[in-house]
């Protein structure tokens, strides 16, 4: 390594070729640190150049040589440990004067903090402890030294020995240079002219004397293959020669018709830009005399409206083209033309050409849907105030109506004869004839009670049997707590036909029978959970089926076949299963306030009338939303009804009309119900802004009854 | 076209004119033609002015000649044959008999009128409108009445009521006393219609309980055995009061709705009209259903004319329909007479004229029809102020109609000379 060092020192500027050629054989002899340094192979590594400077440094300060390269505190830390071998080498070299006491530390490159707590700082070559110099300087001493010692700034502490070292001028200079990023060597010129060893110019003589390869003489097989491929492609027409460029200039033909095959032209509704009229003879500077206007014509031209003129200029004759003045309207006309071009609609507005008739759904004609009620046949007169409610006997022979004149009237259907009048002493809100044909009983809502009345009409045996049935009641042994009171009618009431009085705590607004005719439900105007009560006539027993109020109940309904119970609140219809005692379904009516509801005799369809003049048809199998929402009425619906046998339903409204619709429900589950409005029945006079209050179908005939605020009941057939 | 060639013809030899074609103005109406015939007759011999009615192919002329021919699709090129008859006189109002309540039914003979009333009574009136007898006994509205037999001494009559019974009464004319002979029990609904057969020994009743029952109309001294022993004493007392209980000879069931009208169309044939939209013909002897005529509306009333052998039906629409009861295929309407605006509650054929019938309707009008003019009736009898519920036509030419205005109107409708001639 000494030889190498000297070589570096003696010939640092020798050619790289030589360096390379000579370093490669000497590599094995290199110390491990050097050989492993990758920067060594580079010819111009500045590290290599440190050799001089460091050796120089070591020459001047041999004691610092041991610590300098490893110098942690400030000086060239990047000089790093890689130079330590050099230092060692240099330290061992006989060229330097031997240092008097060799206090070199042998602990190596370890953090000196490890010796912090020891009195010594390491070991010398003989293995003796090197003791830390005695330091008893306190802060004050340090400060005083800093103030007094002019060399304080260049004094560093050697961590290996703990001694203070005063840097020489050269060392300080070196440190300054390295801090600035300059080369350590003062004499090193990094900008020496470069020498090209290989030129870019082709020289007549080869650089090497090697004979040419054989393959440079014989044709290449790969190239041959490539060429033959290209030739084949050309032959097959896969590669076409480039088209010769067409040099003929293209002009836009202003006057040509628009190409019908262009993209815009192919558009069906495209309107081509309007063309200007071609100039004619009259526009010539020297038009033939027949184009020139006479005096009268000129006068007429001036008097004409500008839009009506045939020509928008007066043809004029000039001696020569030179004499033609500037056209004063030129800018104006160009502007107009531009307006024409860009304001003109270039596309016809797509108008859907649909016959409005086609948009109407295909519904069968009402004529084909007969029978349905068409004309007013009978008027049942007798009430003196508005008739709120209607009901009909199961045989269809008798009609019962309840009115605000505090009476209930029984009518013979076919003659409109009032057979009986029953004063009940209160406004009648609802009547319901027992649907069981073997029982002759009518439930009547009067204020806070429900009267069960035997009208004594029809078969004597039947109404006699009904009385017997009611009398056969035996009171149970223990008194049960009931939400209502069952009272047997007094003798006076009995003679009028009243048999039982069910006294509620609040006003009753609706009563409806179950199909079997034993149970009936009543709705009380209340907002607690006591709104709906279900009563059993034979046992005189009432119960409250609901624990919680779900809103203001409008009306209730029994399913005709299955044990379901429908409760309509303002916006929803809830379907309860009476057997399982649970909520089965909740129908969203999409209406603001349900007024009435009716169920199809098949039991799968429900209609709901609402005060916001809508009628919602629900298919219970289909969805909980309305299958169809009919808005035929102009005012609030008061009542809806289904026919028992015919596919008919009707709705009565405050606008005084009854609308009869055909509502066919098919047995086929895949086919949706067919709803066709068939007839608007008018007849009721508007009284107090009220029209029809109740509608009802005859049980066997396609007839509809309506009761109105004009205190009549009307029959339409 | 101004002129038409027409040939006039009549069956009445008194008014016969020459059988030659005449040229008549195309726009001429009945009065013009009538004037023409009168002129022709006056030219021949001594003649009093007579109004005529004209028929072309059996249809009455009720509008200008050319319009009628266009409507009937008769060629105006050929000679038109016009038949003329003496114009029917308008029915002359005779009596207006006031009742206490609605009149549900009426039947008249040569001497008396029997009416059923909603005040639960039947009443006998003389033709002059004098009340002779009030028959009270029913506990409900009397729905129909019928004469069974008339003598100078005593008469038998029937009344059917909503109280499910038919009562057979004997009316002693001389003493003017009435006695209930039999109470016919068996119906389970209001008995709406009764009809006595031509032998006057049986009658048939139709009820709301969908049944037809045939009863004997011969008074006997013994009571029929009632099947049900569970009758309560109160009822028994009533039956004892009202004569002997009678049970039906036969029951005809087949209707699915209430029976609204029954009649004997022959000695052994019963015809019944029902709310189930059918008219059924029954064999009274065996009780079998012979045929069914099916309509599409509820039938309120049916009438049979032995002269023309047609059934006329009034239903809950505004049409009167004529049926041929012998047609086997059933539901064929021969003709419908349309002019009413309400339900036709009652129809009755003329017992003497094969073309004429009267009908009462809920539109308060009684109409007199000739089947040869089906678009317009011969006469409208608009006297009632409320619903007309029943009509009758006697052999003496008396038209009777009762209604919900508690009035029974009588009209004299003279049989015209042409009827006699025909």
From TrEMBL, chain A:
Stretches forming WD repeats: 380-421, 630-660
BP term (GO), one: maturation of LSU-rRNA from tricistronic rRNA transcript (SSU-rRNA, 5.8S rRNA, LSU-rRNA)
PANTHER family associated with the record: RIBOSOME BIOGENESIS PROTEIN BOP1 (PTHR17605:SF0), RIBOSOME BIOGENESIS PROTEIN BOP1 BLOCK OF PROLIFERATION 1 PROTEIN (PTHR17605)
Annotated SMART domains: BOP1NT (SM01035), WD40 (SM00320)
Descriptive protein name: Ribosome biogenesis protein BOP1
Organism for this UniProt entry: Aquila chrysaetos chrysaetos
Cellular component terms per the entry's GO annotation: nucleoplasm; PeBoW complex; preribosome, large subunit precursor
Keyword ATP-binding: no
From TrEMBL, chain B:
GO biological process: maturation of 5.8S rRNA from tricistronic rRNA transcript (SSU-rRNA, 5.8S rRNA, LSU-rRNA); maturation of LSU-rRNA from tricistronic rRNA transcript (SSU-rRNA, 5.8S rRNA, LSU-rRNA); Notch signaling pathway; regulation of cell cycle
CDD domains assigned to the protein according to its UniProt record, in alphabetical order: WD40 (cd00200)
Transferase is among the record's keywords: no
Alphabetic keyword roster: Nucleus, Repeat, Ribosome biogenesis, rRNA processing, WD repeat
Residue ranges constituting the NLE domain according to the UniProt record: 6-69
Region (Disordered): 222-241
Subunit structure: Component of the PeBoW complex, composed of BOP1, PES1 and WDR12. Within the PeBoW complex BOP1 interacts directly with PES1 and WDR12. The PeBoW complex also associates with the 66S pre-ribosome.
HAMAP family: WDR12
Function description: Component of the PeBoW complex, which is required for maturation of 28S and 5.8S ribosomal RNAs and formation of the 60S ribosome.
UniProt similarity note: Belongs to the WD repeat WDR12/YTM1 family.
Name used for this protein in its record: Ribosome biogenesis protein WDR12
Organism listed in the record: Aquila chrysaetos chrysaetos
Gene symbol of the encoding locus: WDR12
């Amino acid at each position: 390594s000494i030889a190498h060092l000297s070589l570096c020192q003696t010939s640092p500027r020798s050619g790289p070729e030589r360096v390379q050629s000579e370093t490669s054989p000497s590599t094995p002899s290199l110390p491990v640190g050097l050989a492993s340094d990758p920067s060594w192979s580079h010819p111009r590594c500045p590290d290599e150049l440190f050799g001089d400077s460091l050796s120089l440094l070591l020459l001047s300060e041999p004691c610092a040589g041991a610590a300098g390269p490893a110098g942690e505190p400030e000086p060239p830390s990047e000089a790093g440990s890689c130079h330590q071998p050099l230092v060692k080498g240099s330290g061992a070299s006989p060229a330097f004067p031997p240092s008097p006491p060799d206090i070199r530390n042998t602990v190596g490159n370890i953090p000196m903090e490890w010796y912090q707590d020891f009195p010594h700082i390491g070991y010398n070559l003989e293995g003796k402890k090197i003791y830390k110099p005695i330091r008893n300087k306190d802060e004050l001493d340090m400060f005083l030294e800093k103030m007094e010692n002019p060399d304080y700034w260049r004094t560093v502490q050697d961590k290996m020995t703990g001694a203070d070292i005063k840097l020489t001028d050269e060392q300080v200079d070196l440190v300054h240079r390295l801090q600035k990023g300059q080369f350590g060597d003062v004499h090193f010129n990094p900008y020496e002219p470069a020498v090209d060893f290989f030129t870019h110019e082709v020289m007549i003589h080869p650089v090497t004397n090697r004979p040419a390869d054989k393959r440079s003489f014989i044709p290449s097989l790969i190239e041959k293959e490539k060429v033959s491929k290209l030739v084949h492609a050309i032959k097959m027409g896969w590669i076409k020669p480039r088209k010769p460029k067409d040099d003929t200039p293209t002009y836009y033909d202003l006057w040509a018709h628009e190409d019908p095959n262009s993209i815009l032209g192919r558009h069906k509704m495209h309107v081509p830009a309007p063309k200007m009229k071609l100039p004619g003879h009259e526009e010539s500077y020297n038009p033939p005399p027949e184009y020139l206007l006479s005096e009268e014509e000129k006068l007429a031209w001036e008097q004409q409206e500008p839009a009506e003129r045939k020509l928008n200029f007066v043809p004029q004759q000039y001696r020569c083209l030179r004499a033609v003045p500037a056209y004063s309207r030129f800018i104006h006309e160009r502007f107009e033309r531009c307006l024409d071009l860009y304001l003109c609609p270039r596309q016809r507005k797509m108008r859907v050409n649909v016959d409005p008739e086609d948009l109407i759904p295909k519904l069968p004609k009402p004529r084909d849907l007969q029978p349905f009620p068409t004309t007013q046949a009978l008027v049942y007169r007798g009430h003196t105030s508005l008739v709120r409610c209607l009901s009909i006997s199961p045989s269809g022979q008798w009609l019962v109506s309840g009115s605000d004149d505090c009476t209930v009237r029984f009518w013979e259907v076919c003659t409109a004869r009032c057979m009986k009048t029953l004063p009940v002493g209160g406004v009648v809100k609802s009547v319901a004839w027992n649907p069981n044909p073997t029982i002759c009983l009518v439930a009547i809502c009067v204020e806070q009670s429900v009267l069960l009345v035997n009208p004594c009409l029809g078969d004597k045996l039947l109404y006699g049997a009904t009385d017997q049935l009611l009398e056969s009641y035996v009171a149970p042994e223990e008194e049960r707590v009931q939400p209502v009171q069952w009272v047997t009618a007094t003798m006076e009431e009995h003679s009028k036909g009243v048999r039982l009085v069910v006294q509620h705590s609040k006003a009753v607004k609706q009563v409806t029978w179950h199909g079997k005719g034993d149970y009936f439900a009543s709705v009380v105007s209340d907002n607690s959970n006591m709104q709906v009560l279900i009563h059993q006539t034979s046992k005189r027993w009432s119960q409250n089926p609901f624990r919680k109020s779900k809103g203001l109940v409008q009306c209730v309904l029994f399913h005709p076949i299955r044990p379901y119970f429908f409760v309509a609140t303002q916006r929803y219809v809830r379907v309860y299963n009476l057997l399982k005692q649970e909520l089965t379904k909740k129908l969203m009516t999409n209406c603001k306030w349900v007024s009435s509801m009716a169920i199809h005799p098949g039991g799968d369809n429900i209609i709901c009338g609402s005060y916001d003049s809508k009628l919602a048809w629900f298919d219970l199998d289909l969805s909980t939303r309305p299958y169809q929402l009919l808005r035929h009425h102009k005012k609030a619906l008061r009542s809806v009804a289904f026919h028992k046998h015919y596919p008919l339903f009707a709705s009565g409204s405050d606008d005084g009309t009854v609308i009869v619709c055909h509502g066919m429900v098919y047995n086929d589950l895949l086919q949706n119900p067919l709803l066709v409005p068939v007839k608007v029945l008018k007849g009721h006079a508007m009284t107090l802004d009220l029209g029809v209050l109740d509608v009802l179908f005859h049980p066997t005939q396609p007839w509809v009854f309506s009761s109105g605020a004009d205190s009549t009941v009307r029959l339409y057939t | 076209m101004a002129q038409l060639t027409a040939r006039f013809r009549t069956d009445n030899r008194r008014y016969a004119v020459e059988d030659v074609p005449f040229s008549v103005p195309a726009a001429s109406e009945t009065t013009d033609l009538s004037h023409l015939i009168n002129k022709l007759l006056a030219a021949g011999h001594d003649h009093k002015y007579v109004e005529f009615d004209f028929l072309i192919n059996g249809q009455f002329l009720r509008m200008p000649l050319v319009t009628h021919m266009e409507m009937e699709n008769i060629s105006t090129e050929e000679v038109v044959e016009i038949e003329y008859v003496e114009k029917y006189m308008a029915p002359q109002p005779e009596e207006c008999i006031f009742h206490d309540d609605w009149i549900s039914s009426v039947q008249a003979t040569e001497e008396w009128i029997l009416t059923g009333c909603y005040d639960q009574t039947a009443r006998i009136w003389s033709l002059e409108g004098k009340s002779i007898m009030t028959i009270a006994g029913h506990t409900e509205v009397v729905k129909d009445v019928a004469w069974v037999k008339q003598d100078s001494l005593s008469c038998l009559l029937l009344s059917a009521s909503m109280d499910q019974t038919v009562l057979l009464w004997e009316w002693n004319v001389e003493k003017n006393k009435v006695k209930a002979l039999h109470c016919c029990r068996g119906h389970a609904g209001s008995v709406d219609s009764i009809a006595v057969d031509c032998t006057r020994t049986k009658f048939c009743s139709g009820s709301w309980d969908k049944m037809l029952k045939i009863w004997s109309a011969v008074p006997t001294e013994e009571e029929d055995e009632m099947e049900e022993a569970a009758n309560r004493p109160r009822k028994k007392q009533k039956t004892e009061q009202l004569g002997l209980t009678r049970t039906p000879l036969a029951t005809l069931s087949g209707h699915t709705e209430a029976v609204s009208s029954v009649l004997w169309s022959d000695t052994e044939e019963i015809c019944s009209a029902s709310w189930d939209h059918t008219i059924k013909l029954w064999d009274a002897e065996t009780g079998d259903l012979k045929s069914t005529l099916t309509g599409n509306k509820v039938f309120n009333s049916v009438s049979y004319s032995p002269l023309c052998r047609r059934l006329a039906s009034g239903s809950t629409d505004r049409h009167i329909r004529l049926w041929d009861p012998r047609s086997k295929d059933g539901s064929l309407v021969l003709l419908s007479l349309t002019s009413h605006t309400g339900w036709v509650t009652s129809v009755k054929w003329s017992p003497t004229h094969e073309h004429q019938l009267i009908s009462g309707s809920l539109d308060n009008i009684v109409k007199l029809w000739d089947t040869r003019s089906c678009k317009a009736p011969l006469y409208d009898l608009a006297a009632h102020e409320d619903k007309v519920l029943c009509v009758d036509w006697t052999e003496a030419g008396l038209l009777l109609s009762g209604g919900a205005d508690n009035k029974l109107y009588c009209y004299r409708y003279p049989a015209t000379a042409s009827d006699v001639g025909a």
